Every structure is written in structure tokens, then in C-alpha cells.
């Protein structure tokens, strides 16, 4: 159960970073609810996609899920922290921020881990991340976004390696 909660928290790091780049003063509760909903919808779809894939690739699915987790973590480590303010609607930005939860949840579907714990933790942490990004990071800019992104990527990479090691 700790992996699902940790993954849900780590999947909200992109929300933390993206929404700390620009301030949205209006409808922050609505925006946070939208982000949280998407961070629960995409993992649910991804989880069931992973279950379907796992049924067809029963022997290879633990390897595939470990590799997918590792690649997502590696991509986060190597990604450049965005420095420009996105020119997208905050609601469209939320869709893009939620897409990576799909790939991680495919891995969890393959491993048949507890989906509701992951989905609820992803939604909860994404909801909180919008407020932290807007009220703390954007105003005070004391946290380095690149360090946050790399730390989260390192933790996801470690989760992928541990998944491969436990096979």
C-alpha cells in the first residue's frame, strides 16, 4: 500500500511545478477540483488498460511495469524545468499535467496493485499541490522546481527498479 500512496504523491509533483509558474487568482477551488478529478480519471483508465495488457502478457507484465516506471522516473530526472509561463488555459494545462498518471497506472494495473488507494492518493495530492503551488511556491519562489522534479523522478525510478528486482 505504501507504493500506491507514494506514487500518488509523486504524480502530483508535475502539478506542483506547472501551477507554480503562473498565478490563477480566480476559481482556485474549481481548478484544484478539476486537476484532482483528472488525476483520478487518467489513472483509472490506465489501471484497467494495464489489467488488460497483463492478461495478454502474463509473464512479461512485471518486467514491462518495472520498465515503464523506470522510464517515467528517468524522463522526470532528465527533463528541464519549465522556465516560461504556459500560454494555455489552466484547465487545459491540468489535462497535460495528468497524462503521465496514465502511464504509471498502466504499470500498477499490470502488477494488480490496489487501484483505489493510488487513485485517491493521486487526486488528494494533486488537489493539495494546486494550493501549495499557488499560495506558497509562486508567491515565495523558495523551492527550486528542477530539484523537485528530479527528486520525484529519482523516487519513481527507484520504484521501477525495486519492481524489477522483486520479480
Describe this structure in words.
The chain is an all-alpha fold and 167 residues long. Helices cover 78% and strands 0% of the residues. The protein has 7 helices and no strands. Helix 1 runs parallel beside helix 6, helix 3 packs antiparallel against helix 6 and helix 4 runs antiparallel to helix 7. It starts with a helix and ends with a helix. The mean pLDDT is 78.
Q: Could you write a compact summary of the structure shown?
A:
The protein has 167 residues and is mostly helical. Helices cover 78% and strands 0% of the residues.
- Terminal CA distance: 18 Å
* Total count of strands: 0
Output the helix-strand order. Answer: HHHHHHH
Low-confidence region ranges:
none
What is the arithmetic mean of pLDDT? 78
Largest pleated sheet: none
Could you estimate the helical fraction of the residues in percent? Answer: over 70%
Question: Strand pairing plus helix content: what structural class?
Answer: mainly alpha
Q: Tell me the radius of gyration.
A: 16 Å
Per DSSP, the total helix count is: 7
How big a fraction of the residues is strand?
A: under 5%
Overall geometry: globular
Output the keywords.
167 residues; mainly alpha
Task: Give the arrangement of secondary structure elements.
Elements: H1 2-10, H2 13-18, H3 28-56, H4 61-78, H5 90-111, H6 115-140, H7 145-165
Helix pairs in contact: 1-6, 3-5, 3-6, 4-5, 4-7
Amino acid at each position: 500500500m505504501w507504493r500506491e500512496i507514494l506514487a500518488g504523491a509523486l504524480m502530483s509533483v508535475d502539478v506542483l511545478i506547472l501551477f507554480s509558474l503562473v498565478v490563477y487568482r480566480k476559481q482556485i477551488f474549481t481548478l484544484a477540483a478539476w486537476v484532482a478529478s483528472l488525476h483520478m480519471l487518467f489513472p483509472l483508465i490506465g489501471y484497467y488498460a494495464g489489467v488488460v495488457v497483463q492478461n495478454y502478457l502474463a509473464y512479461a507484465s512485471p518486467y514491462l511495469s518495472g520498465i515503464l516506471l523506470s522510464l517515467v522516473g528517468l524522463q522526470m530526472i532528465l527533463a528541464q524545468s519549465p522556465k516560461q509561463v504556459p500560454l494555455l488555459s489552466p484547465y487545459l494545462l491540468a489535462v497535460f499535467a495528468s497524462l503521465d498518471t496514465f502511464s504509471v497506472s498502466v504499470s500498477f494495473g499490470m502488477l494488480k496493485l490496489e487501484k483505489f488507494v493510488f487513485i485517491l492518493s493521486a487526486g488528494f495530492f494533486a488537489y493539495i499541490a494546486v494550493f501549495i503551488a499557488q499560495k506558497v511556491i509562486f508567491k515565495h519562489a523558495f523551492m527550486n522546481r528542477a530539484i523537485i522534479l528530479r527528486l520525484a523522478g529519482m523516487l519513481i525510478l527507484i520504484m521501477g527498479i525495486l519492481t524489477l528486482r522483486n520479480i
